[in-house]
Amino acid sequence: MSKAAKQRRAPAERPKEILEAALALFVEKGFAATRLDDVAERAGLSKAAIYLYFEDKMALFQGVIRQAVISNFGTVEALAQAHRGPVTEILPRLLEFMASRIEDTPLPSIAKLVIGESRAFPEIGRFYLKEVIGRGLPLLEALIARGIAQGEFRAVDPGLTVRSLIGPMLLAGVWKTVFEPIGGERLDTRALARHHADLMLHALRAP
User: What's the Rg (C-alpha) of the chain?
Assistant: First the structure.
């Protein structure tokens, strides 16, 4: 689609186009090397159009995280809130959902960007820590605590348990963005999620 054609599209569609262009460039070039001029060109819009929706490049990066990562929390929260059965039934579903996000979305590339850029741009790391980690960990910790209270799980530390639970998913993200592109064998993240769920449920089971 030509730049003129994109500029004629409904304004409501433009933020999504800008975020998609920004994500592609952040992954290709990194945060520091990506210019708003480049994003505008990739999106087929003017640089002035970007400023209508995003104050600066940091706000644009945060928008990328909101669209690609934080938007998934609604699904996870809905699953957790709607579930009234044993916690042992929902943990495998949540791990498989995480695996699907790693396999089918840019989530691993974004996590890699956050890790790689946070030393030079601490605001990136702080935003991810607050909006992603700070929202996800308590949700999962509450599920573990519920399982303990219901007598399904033995008495474990919910915080440490959740970190153990999501560790292999973090490994999968690193593997797919760092090692697979340079010849590492393909990792079946969904199979890893099912395997890890089985191990965790056996480890957590109350005597």
Answer: 20
- C-alpha to C-alpha distance for 181 and 179, rounded to whole angstroms: 5
Write the single-letter amino acid at 144: I
Q: How far is CA 144 from the centre of its chain?
A: 21
Least confident of 63-72, 85-94, 148-157, 197-206: 63-72
Domain boundaries, the chain: 3-56, 69-204
Q: Are 64 and 22 in contact (CB under 8 A)?
A: yes
- Paired strand residues for 205: 153
Phi-psi region of 37 (alpha: psi -120 to 50; beta: other; left: phi over 0): alpha
**Interval 69-81 mean pLDDT:** 82
Q: What is the CATH number of domain 3-56?
A: 1.10.10.60
Chain mean pLDDT for the chain: 91
Fold of the 69-204 domain = Tetracycline Repressor; domain 2 (1.10.357)
Is it true that 3-56 and 69-204 share their CATH fold? no
Q: How far apart are the first and last CA of the chain?
A: 62
What CA–CA distance (Å, rounded) separates 47 from 56? 11
